[in-house]
Design a protein that fits this description.
Elements: E1 9-11, E2 15-19, H1 25-33, H2 49-66, E3 70-75, E4 81-90, E5 94-101, H3 110-125, E6 131-135, H4 140-148, E7 152-158, E8 165-170
Parallel strand pairs: 5-6
Antiparallel strand pairs: 1-2, 2-3, 3-4, 4-5, 6-8, 7-8
Helix pairs in contact: 1-2
GO molecular function: acyltransferase activity
Domain N-acetyltransferase: 15-171
Organism: Kitasatospora cinereorecta
Length: 183
């Protein structure tokens, strides 16, 4: 934890989690350009280093505004980058689980370990906010992770970010979630 209490650096059983920053560009660009990483959402694949750099910049800025965002996850034993993940506060008032792992590290339980840290950090930060994972129906691996976290599948609902029907896994019942618009 930092001086302000936000978990910018955490250790789990096997992972070292550090707030994402520009120094992570090479590893995260490699992960985000791998087509296997985006098999469930091919249009999300990063096409340029500039895309990844801007994405990292936005995620890093959330540490300043929300005191919680994404960590770059490394193996404690070797320092190898496993991926990125964490929780970000989303409109209309919930924590959104996110992770993206290097396919070389799939199948070892790192997504669950990283997600448990995100759930705990979000609950410690703002326990009044629901913790949600929006997951495509065909992304069975992520749906299994959500189940291991104890999140409940509330069924297909429109994702507030883009309106796409996705499974809403949450730590509690939530009403209709629609993005607030300025006006």
């Amino acid at each position: 934890m930092s001086d302000f209490g936000e978990p910018v650096h955490l250790l789990t059983d096997r992972l070292e989690l550090r707030a994402v920053g520009p120094h992570d560009l090479d590893d995260l660009f490699r992960i985000n350009t791998d087509p296997r990483t985006w098999a469930h959402l091919p249009e999300g694949r990063h096409a340029s280093r500039a895309t990844t750099a801007a994405w990292i910049e936005r995620a890093a800025a959330r540490w300043d505004t929300d005191r919680l965002s994404y960590w770059t996850a490394r193996l404690r034993t070797t320092g190898d980058v496993v991926g990125i993940g964490g929780a970000q506060r989303h409109d209309p008032g919930f924590w959104n689980l996110y992770y993206r792992l290097d396919p070389v590290h799939w199948g070892h339980g790192y997504a669950t370990e990283l997600s448990r840290a995100a759930l705990a950090a979000a609950a410690a930060h703002s326990p009044e906010l629901p913790f949600i994972a929006w997951i495509h129906a065909h992304n069975t691996a992520s749906r299994a992770v959500a189940g291991r976290l104890g999140l409940t599948d509330l069924g297909l609902r429109p994702d507030p970010a883009n309106g796409d029907p996705m499974h809403c896994y949450a730590d509690r019942e939530v009403g209709v979630l629609t993005r607030r618009t300025a006006g």
